[in-house]
Amino acid sequence: MKIALAQTNPTVGALEKNVKRMLEMIHEAKSRGCRLVIFPELSILGYPPKDLLEKADFVESNLRAFRALVESVRGIGVICGYVKRNTSPEGKSLFNTAALFENGDILYEVEKCLLPCYDVFEETRYFEPGKPKNALTYGGIRLGISICEDIWNDKDFFPRQLYHSNPVESLVSDGAEILVNISASPYHREKLAFRQHMLGGVAKKYARPVIYVNQVGGNDSLIFDGASLAFDADGTIVTRGVDFEEDLIVYDTESGTGDIHPVATSDTESVLRALIMGLRDYCSKCGFKGVVLGLSGGIDSSLVAYIATKALGPEHVLGVSLPSRYSSEGSRTDARKLAENLGIRFHLIPIEEIYGTFLNSLESVFAGRERDVTEENIQARIRGNILMALSNKLGYLVLATGNKSEVGVGYCTLYGDTCGGLAVISDVPKTMVYELCRFINQEEEIIPPAVLLKAPSAELRPDQTDQDTLPPYEILDPILQAYVEDLRSAEDIVAMGFAEETVRRVIKMVESSEYKRQQMAPGLKVTTKAFGFGRKLPIAQGYLG
């Protein structure tokens, strides 16, 4: 039997559009001689639908879309995900469901048993956990169908199991010959390799092929990488879809072979492709035709401009240089050169006159007080105002350009450089920013070499550098990763070899900046723990450890 793995890029809530795309892929699967086509988790709705699930009319629309799909498909079996009502008077009112249908008839349904409620997941907020189901025979093969998290609880792989049952084990006990998992598994750096290792281990452990179909695309902060897979009974990959693009690949159960499509060959390439797709989908799904960003001549805005150009095309990107009295000539030149290299539109709008007016207006109020960060922040907020004015006039999305290191310790100006509708690299540490830029320049010099060589600076006062305020990024970033992503204590981080004074200072900066982060634009998640969605901490709190 030929089985098509159809990794789609749904827009959350765009039911008709999503079903239309599914029908196109079903037609393609039929044309390639497939007996069965498998779609990702909640493929009709898009994942995650969040509180749309609390709207009764939305749930009903999802049911109508599902029924219409069932009734319109002939000559091929389909497995897809949708939301079903729980008719029991107890428990949550909805199930996260996978259905197998053919020729207008629903042959089998299974509800998701293991509902994640950690990091970015909140499924227990909406869904009732299902009960284990038996496998079913289709096309002469006994299939064991599960949904996403249901395959992530193997006691031989995870040292600590989060759930008390293993649905896959139950399916194998019931005679499943092929394990099928439909998924919406969000991306983070190193996730693809980890997922392959885990799924291959399941296939090898139970000596059964595993088919895994994953959603692709960006939905708000979350990025889904696709890279759908089929493994043979030895745990070897025999079918693979591309990452960060829609794809339809075919796995032949008789020959045990299938399509093998390329994926990123390094984590650096993977992160870059994730950010490009995440920005592209955010703009297209929210209806933005273009983006605008400030070009400081620094490395962060250079990276964001490159990502925007690749995501949307140079004609849809506007870079704006906003120099003040403290902006170096080199920074102005580098900003213009970058715009020329990328082929994007470029405007120069000096802010010196506006800045002078601000200072004059506040002179009497500030009389007798030394200049400090106040005057520095005024410049950043002037720039934010200008970018928002361009956004209003042109209908463009403003891109914030702050990186994870700056956002983490609050080295950013609220309503200034934090201004924007999407924080593209807010989950990219500064050291990774350099890594990405060097990768970009491998084949062609896009980012001016001076940008990579000069000391990072906000240029808000004379001869300023980031390291006047922060530890060197080579020290700051590992501390932030240990504290934010790995959840290490201050004592643990000091034991890693970092100076206690530095560690305590960084942690204090992280915790005292939570109020800033909760007012920032959403960011694209590419690490295991991003600020914002998935990291929920109180603003008013006193624990620093």
Please tell me about this protein's structure.
There is one protein chain. With 545 residues, the protein is of the alpha/beta class. It folds into 2 domains: 2-263, Carbon-nitrogen hydrolase (Nitrilase/N-carbamoyl-D-aminoacid amidohydrolase), CATH 3.60.110; 270-517, HUPs (Rossmann fold). It is built from 16 helices and 20 strands. It has a 7-stranded mixed beta sheet with strand order 5-4-3-2-1-14-15, covered by helices on one side. Strands 6-7-8-9-12-13 form a 6-stranded mixed beta sheet, covered by helices on one side. β7, α3 and β8 (178-183) form a beta-alpha-beta unit.
What is the global morphology?
Answer: elongated
Multimeric status of the protein: single chain
CATH class of the largest domain: Alpha Beta
Distance between the termini: 56 Å
The biggest sheet amounts to: 7 strands, mixed
Describe the structure in brief.
It contains 16 helices and 20 strands. It has 545 residues and is of the alpha/beta class.
Name the descriptors.
545 residues, alpha/beta, Nitrilase/N-carbamoyl-D-aminoacid amidohydrolase, Rossmann fold, 2 domains, 7-stranded mixed beta sheet, 6-stranded mixed beta sheet, 16 helices, 18% strand, elongated
Lay out the secondary structure.
Elements: E1 2-7, H1 15-31, E2 36-38, H2 56-72, E3 77-85, E4 94-102, E5 105-111, E6 136-138, E7 141-147, H3 167-173, E8 178-183, H4 191-206, E9 210-214, E10 216-219, E11 222-225, E12 229-231, E13 237-240, E14 247-252, E15 257-258, H5 267-286, E16 291-294, H6 299-312, E17 317-321, H7 329-342, E18 345-348, H8 352-362, H9 373-394, E19 397-400, H10 404-409, E20 422-423, H11 430-440, H12 449-453, H13 473-485, H14 490-495, H15 500-512, H16 514-517
Parallel strand pairs: 1-2, 2-3, 7-8, 8-9, 16-17, 16-19, 17-18, 19-20
Antiparallel strand pairs: 1-14, 3-4, 4-5, 6-7, 9-12, 10-11, 12-13, 14-15
Helix pairs in contact: 1-2, 5-6, 5-11, 6-7, 6-11, 8-9, 13-15
